[in-house]
Specification:
Blueprint (H helix, E strand, L loop, with lengths): L2 H4 L4 E3 L2 E3 L6 E6 L4 E7 L3 H16 L8 H17 L1 H12 L3 H21 L6 E3 L5 E9 L2 E5 L5 H15 L2 E5 L6 H13 L6 E3 L4 H10 L5 E5 L2 H12 L4 E5 L5 E4 L5 H13 L11 E5 L3 H12 L20 H17 L1 E4 L16 E4 L6 H4 L6 E7 L2 H9 L3 E2 L1 E5 L3 H10 L4 E4 L14 E2 L2 E2 L4 H6 L2 E9 L9
Parallel strand pairs: 7-8, 7-10, 8-9, 10-11, 12-13, 12-18, 13-16, 15-16, 18-19
Antiparallel strand pairs: 1-2, 3-4, 5-6, 6-22, 11-21, 14-15, 17-20
Helix pairs in contact: 2-8, 3-5, 3-6, 3-7, 4-5, 5-6, 10-11
Bound molecules: adenosine-5'-diphosphate and magnesium ion.
């Protein structure tokens, strides 16, 4: 398949393709060749306004919120079915555009379909309450869609993040304006081309391509957008929260992390080494929940660092489309520069076990070496700042209390993992760690059925599971008086 032949180089607004009102185009790259593989419109304020108007119309006059939950559920099932049918081309496009290994892209595409299936099923399970008010009355809590949702997503899991945003919103009866990351818009645009045949009415899903500072910022400030769902950096999350305050929008933020992956001496050693590597090197480390702080009990620390380093040598860097590639290039020149900068910072703060540079063998592409720093102090920048690349900071700890102190000594709180065979200790840690997701004897498994989101500066609101749809629903209290007499107050 040729990416260039299949590219929709336009935006999807009100059920139609449009070039937008600006003549500016944004180049989209293949990070393994650094070649431009598509060009997309650079959405202007007027383009965003058109998308919001289309969503508003679909919501206010188009009858979308009045469709039955069954109808919306069936539409979501059709989207899932289409994604599964087109999975090979979607995975290839995703792999080319992000640099992620094709095998990982295949999992992402399947997960995206699963997400539409889950919320297709959940659409018919949303129900309100009957409230036991002390009167001759019927008191109800109704669940209603929040309205027009502005959804801004990152470049690390492009179609999957689109699914996490669109599926619960549609199930709830919202209309959406989705902005993919400017680096990786191609799979979301592919999906847009199939929405009509899946039964999504015009205006219910609009996809604007554009830059964060212009198109993204306009979505956030727009007075006719009711809610913002954002996944991305903490820095942009703060801007969004400030801007959304002017119109008091509902906001959910899924931001970065510096998640601890904690290994006690009694953990299964082989599984632990695998888990430490998988936790931080999957998807080139471009994962918000990456286990980028590897905390290791001092009694196994030297052996652990050695085994982790030895196994990291076998991680195969290579072209994203090779089936045996375990790590591809980073997504962009900007991200490559950022990770290289942290590799240098790390060398001045800690010891290098492996990596710390760029592989010589490729000649082009944004490849960096899987990098492990050890003897890292938790106050080091590489232990405090999100790098969003394949860089691990290994930190020794003395005992359970020390592990907990280090684990929680971070402004972030997205995820954590604890490895131990001692169930008492593991569960004490689970309860004491301040993070939205805690894994025991595993790191990274993510299921559409289970909630996802952060504590502290990793954001707020929950996606996925039954929790995810709540963020797209309002609660309306209805009081029905059953007394036929006047209240008799006067
Ligand atoms: P990164 O810097 O790694 O690209 P960002 O948080 O900047 O991560 O990007 C995540 C998403 O947020 C992208 O879709 C991007 O276009 C968007 N974005 C960036 N800046 C803003 C902004 N000021 N307002 C709204 N969206 C933004
Ligand atoms: Mg940015």
């Amino acid at each position: 398949m040729s990416v260039t032949q299949s590219k929709p180089e336009a935006m999807f607004i009100n059920g139609e393709w449009t070039e937008g009102s600006s003549s500016n185009r944004i180049p989209v790259c293949d990070p393994s060749s650094e070649e431009v593989i598509a060009e997309i419109p650079d959405a202007s304020v007027a383009d965003v306004d058109a998308a919001v108007a289309a969503a508003r119309h679909a919501f206010d006059q188009g009858g979308w919120p009045q469709t039955t939950a069954q109808e919306r559920g069936r539409i979501l099932f059709r989207i899932a079915e289409k994604i599964r049918a087109e999975a090979p081309q979607l995975a290839e496009l995703e792999s080319r555009n992000t640099g992620k290994p094709i095998v990982e892209a295949e999992f992402d595409i399947a997960d995206a379909a699963t997400c539409f299936e889950y919320y297709g099923g959940l659409a018919t399970k949303v129900s309100g309450l009957v409230n036991p008010v002390p009167d001759n009355a019927l008191s109800l809590s109704l669940k209603e869609p929040v309205g027009v949702a502005g959804q801004i997503i990152p470049w690390n899991y492009p179609l999957l993040m689109a699914a996490w945003k669109l599926a619960p919103a549609l199930a709830a009866g919202c209309a959406c304006v989705l902005k993919p990351a400017e680096q990786t818009p191609l799979t979301a645009l592919k999906l847009a081309g199939w929405l009509g045949e899946c039964g999504v009415p015009p205006g219910v899903i609009n996809i604007v391509t554009g830059l964060g500072e212009t198109a993204g910022a306009r979505i956030v400030e727009h007075p006719h957008v009711d809610k913002i769902a954002f996944t991305g950096s903490a820095a942009v999350g703060k801007l969004i929260m400030k801007s959304a305050a002017d119109t008091l929008k509902r906001v959910t933020l899924e931001l970065g992390g510096k998640s601890p992956n904690i290994f006690f001496a009694d953990a299964d050693f082989e599984a632990a080494i695998d888990g430490a590597l998988f936790g931080v090197f999957i998807n080139q480390g471009e994962v918000c929940s990456a286990g980028s702080r590897v905390l290791v009990e001092r009694s196994i620390y030297p052996k652990f660092v050695e085994a982790m380093t030895e196994k990291a040598r076998s991680i195969k860097l290579g072209p994203p489309l090779d089936r045996d590639t375990k790590m591809g290039p980073l997504v962009s020149r900007e991200q490559y520069d950022r990770v290289c900068k942290y590799q240098e910072i790390g060398k001045s703060e800690a010891k290098v076990a492996i990596g710390g540079g760029q592989p010589a063998s490729f000649g082009r592409g944004y490849y960096v070496e899987p990098t492990i720093f050890y003897d890292v102090d938790n106050s080091a920048r590489i232990a405090r700042e999100e790098i969003f690349g394949p860089v691990a900071a290994v930190i020794p700890f003395d005992d359970e209390a020390d592990a907990l102190k280090i684990a929680n000594d971070t402004p972030f709180g997205l995820a954590a993992a604890v490895w131990s065979r001692d169930i008492y200790r593991a569960l004490r840690m689970v309860k004491a760690i301040r993070a939205g997701i805690v894994w025991v004897n595993h790191m990274q498994p993510t299921y559409v059925e289970a909630p996802w989101g952060g504590y502290k500066q990793s954001g707020f609101g929950r996606e996925l599971g039954v929790h995810g749809i709540d963020e797209y629903l309002e609660t309306k209290q209805v009081h029905i008086n059953l007394n036929e007499q006047p209240i008799g107050w006067y």
